Each structure stands twice: as C-alpha cells, then as structure tokens.
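PROTOCOL LOG
Step 1. Enter all chains and additional molecules of the complex.
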Amino acid sequence: MLTDLTIHELAARFRRGDATPTQAAREYLDRIAALDSKVKAYLTVTGEAALARAAEADARFKSGTPRGPLDGVPLGLKDVFCTRGVRTTCGSKILEGFVPPYDATVVARLVRAGAVILGKLNMDEFAMGSSTENSAYFTTRNPWDLSRVPGGSSGGSAAAVAADLAAATLGTDTGGSIRQPAAFCGNVGLKPTYGRVSRFGLIAFASSLDQVGPFAKDVLDAALMLQAVAGHDPMDSTSAAIPVPDYAAELDGGVRGLRVGIPAEYFIEGLDAEVEAAVRAAVETLEGLGAKTESVSLPHTEYGLAAYYLIAPAECSSNLARYDGVKYGLRVPGARDLIDMYSRTRGAGFGTEVKRRVMLGTYALSAGYYDAYYGKAQKVRTLVQRDFQKAFERVDVIVAPTTPSVAFKMGERADPLSMYLNDVFTIPVNLAGLPGLSVPAGFTKSGLPIGLQVIGKAFDEATLLRTAKAYEAATRWHERKPGLAE
Amino acid sequence: MSGAYEVVIGLEVHAQLLTRTKMFCGCSTVFGAAPNTQTCPVCQGMPGTLPVINRRAVEFGITTALAINCTVNADNRFARKHYYYPDMPKNYQISQYEEPLAVHGHLDIEVDGAARRIGIERLHLEEDVGKLIHEGSLETAQSSQVDFNRAGVPLMEIVSKPDIRTSEEAGAYLRGLRAIVVYLGVCDGNMEEGSMRCDANISLRLHGGELGTKVEVKNMNSFRNVQHALEYEIKRQTRALETGERIVQETRLWDPDKAQTVSMRSKEFAHDYRYFPEPDLPPLNIEPALIERLRESLPELPAARRQRFREVYVLNAHDAEVATQSRGLADYFEEAAKDSSNPKAIANWVLNEVLRVVPGDDEKAIRSCPVKPANLAGLVTLIEDGTISGKIAKDVFEKMYRSGEDARTIVLREGLTQVADAGALGAVVDGVLAEHAKVVEDYKAGKKAALGFLVGQVMKATAGKASPGVVNSLLAEKLSKL
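Step 2. Run joint prediction.
Step 3. Record the structure below.
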C-alpha cells in the first residue's frame, strides 16, 4: 500500500515509475473515505483538487521534470492555514463559511514544491487546547486507541499521519501543539525556531509564540517538510533572514561526541512512571551511540506555565478581536444595535475555552493590571530564555519527556488546569523561541506511544534532526503502526 | 478674555502621509476611489495576515521630526491600541505608545509680533481607519456600510505640550505645522478633506495654580473652526468656573452650525485601550546614518525662508509671511524674482494679483496657475522698461490668466505698447496744443493745472498707449517754446 510509505519512499517509487502521484492520491482518498469516520481527522477533504494536482505531478514525472522530494506527495494541513478558495474554519464556528482569497506562505511553498493537498485537519478552536475536544465541529480520535484523544491543538494533523491518512501534515505549535500530539500519536513532530517559518496566512493565536512545523512518519520526512517551508518571507516581518541549511544532507552525522543535557526540572512529581522510564532508556541509547550526557538546570521551568497563560491569552484577546460579524464568517442576525451584534456573534461563535482565554487576556492587559500580569509574565519569559542560554553554553541539545503522560481518555480532563498541565514541558521552549522536536520513544504496556523531546539552540534544527535520526535508527519505534483497519 | 484664569491648550495633530502605499501593505492611498477597491486581505484585517512597515512612511516621520526639532528614538516600536468599531478592521489600531518615533521637539510661532516657543511632546506613526457610510443620518440609519479604502493609510500624530495659551496661538501653531509638513512634501495639509486633523485639549487654571480638568474637543475641520471652538470653550469654562460649576472631564464635539461644543461622552468612563507591543513587528531600529541622510536632505523650512526673503528680496515682515505661507507660493515668487531687477515689484504682483486668482495655500492650484512665474517676470519687465503702463499691465495679466500666453505676445498682438517715440508723439502733441489754444494760454498765464488736462488729451488721442513720462517732457518742452 502506498499509504504505508514515508515521503522519501514514495518519492523513490515515483522516480522509478513504480507508482504515480495519482495512484498515491487515490489510495489516500480511499483510505480517508474508509477510515476517517473512525479517526475524524479531516474537517474538509479536497479530493477533486487533489486529483487534479496529482495528474499535473504525473505529467512532470512522465516528462522527467519532477520538482523535488515533495512532488506528487499527498499532504494534509491543519485548518489553521488559510487556503485560497478552500474553506478555513480554524476549528471555530465564528469562521464558518470563510473562504480565504489567499494562501498562507507555507501552503504556497508546499504547492510550489508539487505537493498534493488532501484536505484540512481538525484542531482545537483557534489552536487553544490539548485534545481537539475544543474543536467546534468534533473530537478527533487517537488511532492507537479510539477512546483516547490524539492530543492538541494539532490533533487532526497528528492522527492523520499516525493513521496513514496523509504522508505528512503541517501543524502549529504555540505551547506544545505539535510536539504533544506527535508524542500522543507516535509520530515525529517538529516545532522550528520562532522566525524559521513564515506565519503569513497562519490564523494567529499568540503571535509571539506561534510557529509552523511538520508531522511526519520519520525524521527524514520531517527534514524534507521543514526544508520546503522554512526561510524568510517578506510578508512576515518576524521571519528570520537566516539561510536555511540542507537538513537532509546533515541528517546522518550521528551523535558521537554530541553534548546532551538532561534538565533535572523535567523529572518531577506527576511524571508518568512509564514515560520517565522510556526517556531514561532513550538517554542510555544516546550514550550508547557516543553522546556525552550531563545534567543541566532550567530553574525557572516551574514559572513557565503561569507566564504562558498570561502572554498567550493576552495576545489571543487582541488577535481574536477582529471576529466581530462585520466583515466575514458568522454574524448572528436580529441585533438591536452594534454592541448587540458584537455580543451575539462572539457569544455564539466562540467556544468556552476561547472565551475563557479572551477574558483572561483582556484582564491581563487592562489598565492597572498590565504591570502585575502581562508585564511580569514578560519578565519571567526573559528568565526562561536565560535558563536555556546558560544551559546551551554547556550542551548542544537538551532531551526531556515531551509530555508528563501519554494520551488520556476523551472527557477525562474537564478541569482546564489539569489540561493546561499537559504542556508543562513544551511551553518553556515556545517562551524561549527555540526549536523542539518529539520523536517516538516506545510504548506503554497498554500500547500507547511515548514521545522524547529534543530541544536545540535557536536556528539549529539540523542538530535536533541529526540527534533524532540517530535515535530513530537505533530504536526503530517509528515502524510500529496502529492496528486500525483490522 | 479669561481674566483671572490662564488657558492651557495642547493640540494633537494627525497628518496623512503622502506615501504611494499604505502603512502596512501595498495598497494605493489615492483619495476618492470607488469603495473598497483599494484594499487587500492585510488592510481588511483578514485572518492570518501580517503587517509590513512602509519604510517611506518612517522616513517621512523622521524628516518631520527633524524639522520640528525632535529627537528621533533609535529604538522605537509599534503597539496595538484596542477598541471596537466597524471602521477598524482588526478592532485594534497599530500605533505607537511607549516608544514613539520621536520626542521632545518645539515649534516657534509669532502672534502680534511676539515670538513664542511651543513644545512638542512626541511624534508617532500609526494607521488610519476606514469610513462608515450610513443610510440616512447616524441616528435613524437602517444600515451602514464600511469603506476600507482609507484603512491603513499612514498617519503621523504630532502631540504638542500644553504650552498654548490663546486661540490665536493655536492658530499660529497649526499654520506653522501645516506649512512645515507641506514644505516637506509629507502631507498635503488639507484640513477640509481630512488629510490633516486636529483635536484639542483645553483647561483653565488660576494663574500659577494647579492644572484644571481638561476637556477634549474634536471635529474641527478647519483652522478657523479650531480657533472658534477654543474661544467658545474658554468662555464656557470661564463661566462655569465663575459660577462654581464643576468642569467634567469629557470629549466635546464642535458643531460649526450652532457654533458651540457639544458633549460626546464622558471620559470618566474612558476606553481602556489595552496597549501592548505589536508582536507581529520587530522593534524598529533607526540607523543614525539614515537620520543624518534625512537631516542633510531637509529643504529650507518656512521660518528660514521668511527670513531670507526679508534679507535678499527686501520684503517687509508681512509680505515675507504671506509669500512663504506655502512651499508652492514661495517657489513661485522665487522663480519669478530670480532674474528680476525689482523683486519688490514681483512681490506686489504675486501678493496682489496672483493671490487674487489662486489660494496661496493650495499647492496644486499654484503649480497649475496659467500665469507661469517666468511670464509674470516678463510682464513686470515690460512695465519696468516702459513698454506698457502699469494700468495696461493689469489687463494684460487678466489675459495671461485666461490664455496662458506670455505678456509680450499679448502686448504685441493687441498693440498695447506705450508710444514712447518722441518723434511719433510730437505730431500728436502739436495737434493737441493747436486744438486747445485757450488752455495753452491759461497755462502760460500761470495755471499749471492745465498741464494735466493736456496730458490727458494726448493719452486719449493715443488710446492710452503713450508713455506718460515722454508725454510730460514733450509737453513741457513745447510749451516753453511757445
């Protein structure tokens, strides 16, 4: 089955003529039709457009002019990315019916690379959540156990890759929204350095934290995906004008002599014993491969979560102000006046978690509270950044658990605070703007995936990927697949 | 006027910058296009769009800051200002708050010959909002539509210190500021069209006492309205204080029809704008080299030019002031005066005749005036060298204005040259003397006033083309011989 294959395996078949992009697209669309009613990863499937793009890719392979490693490869997109002519909901009712007249820069780059877009993937509303239970449409299921969540907010993107409903997908990570679902679903998820990938056309949650990254079936695929979307974009002033290295070329350098830091603050009470055991075993594996491990300290880790839950809501309260019923998306009729139109539209259009964060953020920015909340959170953010800077004076990468626990059952975490605690190991990386990656690191006894987080220096995704690749080659956890179809 | 009270006024001026494109996207800024035709996803605030700073707008801001003696902040940044209104696509305005582009400047003004220095607090950049078009009046409209063409047009806000003491000073400050932005070519200064807008903060206090409660006045779309509104507020607040009434901190709108200010909303329930640094834009770092380059390319500013006109062209203070009211008019004057032997005469023609047909503050009208500066200089030369009389010259100017032709062409075609040839005039003079023998006798008998009559007769016989000087000397010579 072509849907079993990684991007690089699929691309090799296309080049050899053993398979065509149209065959691959058809197999994926058939599989989506057969299985997605169980997984519920897709909000929108763009079958017709996918087949048209695939036919164009067929012609390029036939004429011997393929565009590169992604040409003809079927991919999925988190519904947070604007897609020209294709409805984009961001998991929210307030954007129901919104069809953007433009493509996000990352979408345009994938399309230019010849990729075949299968559709748009489910997510927590406006990327706020850790389970997709906050999607206004439905909850995506974890392919390893359909009674469990896939993680979030990019849950659809992670589940689609795990269930072979796309060769790879794009998601976004503001506080862990790529790495946490990648850990829950057993795939490779990479959050690049803030500024590495353009945010233009990515519907903003928290602008200073949001970053685009791939979900992939293995580390090489993640490198290929990053390669396609990374680099400066004149439309995003926060994107960095720093050259993009050839990630695939540097992938197989191994970890001999690599200095790996283990942060004491990430092995705390509440960390699941099986997760801890898997991570400790991973550290030993890396040592066995020649890495030098040492303990490092990130003393402000425990304040990261609190700072994040002021900064992210503050930015979200501002970014979401534009959804007012005036210009696009939902407008609830029958309003008496302007304020009433705003209230009715936002009242009906936003879900509970979004409203909670808009209120938190509005409060944190209010006159008289700004210094105590938003201002102080920014100071904590600086301290968290310094923690990492100091640690990276001594080590090349840091490894830690991606999440304190494995995938939980739907409805199990009704209390927002217990949900927020899911991101305690991923949030500091966003606050510091650093790259982080989750790679499969084994399974619990009950068969649920565990993720190993690798954190790197700014713009040093190459070393992250090289570390993860060496670990992956030594363990091959990524080859195991959920028994969905059976 | 305010007696026991001292008036404290600060002005906030918004000036639309004359960039070709908007502050944060590539849309055109041209005024008057069909609604929503000059928009894109960015200036419509669509999801996922991001702002990109217009470098030209930044340069215009720095140039203005330097012209009003401000310090440009090497590190400044944009901030979001939040409030909900349908004309604002994102429901926040990208502006500058704690770290503006420039601070601490001043503008020197003159009122009734007395010089005053008005401090300038800050200059910052921001984006304009769109326009609401209501079906009928705002109160009764059943629907309203939004035109986002103006949304995102670059604005520069200049905030004065509360140094202004009278409405006349406010007027002088505004005229001075307007002249500067127009001279710099960064704003067209048109208050009626809204490309320059002014809000005022005004309070009264006992001389030397603590600051009073301030009132914000908006909706004044001309210099005259600003002065009238401030005069009204001074009277209103004086009366209130004298009768022991409390001044409410509020925003009031100037109603030009009723000639009064009307309360709009109480500032005691003021908006909380929830400013915070714009995370979509990195801090804007201004290189010292850029500041220096812009400083060096500053044109001569109105005050310096006024002074130079007084020295070089020997204009009096009033004429120099009028001639420099806009860059266009001053350029016009200099262009006409540069080759003239009589710049004072040029100034008279510009101030009396040219300003009769074009408004002196309308750059466009001045530039397109059919009487070109070189042609005005030509006209004055024709007077200077005696080719035409000053009286004929006014008719020639009218014709030049209507046809755009130069003076000599008109004068030659219509035979308007003065007859200055003594030979040709001699016969006419002889004829007049023969015809009016009685008057000649009166003159000889000592009635010197008779000469004027004779001159008039010669002028009449030549249809006004005779040179009065030549006629006078010819008559004197011939009469002495009789």
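Step 4. Note key features.
The radius of gyration of chain A is 21 Å.
The first strand of chain A starts at residue 42 and ends at 45.
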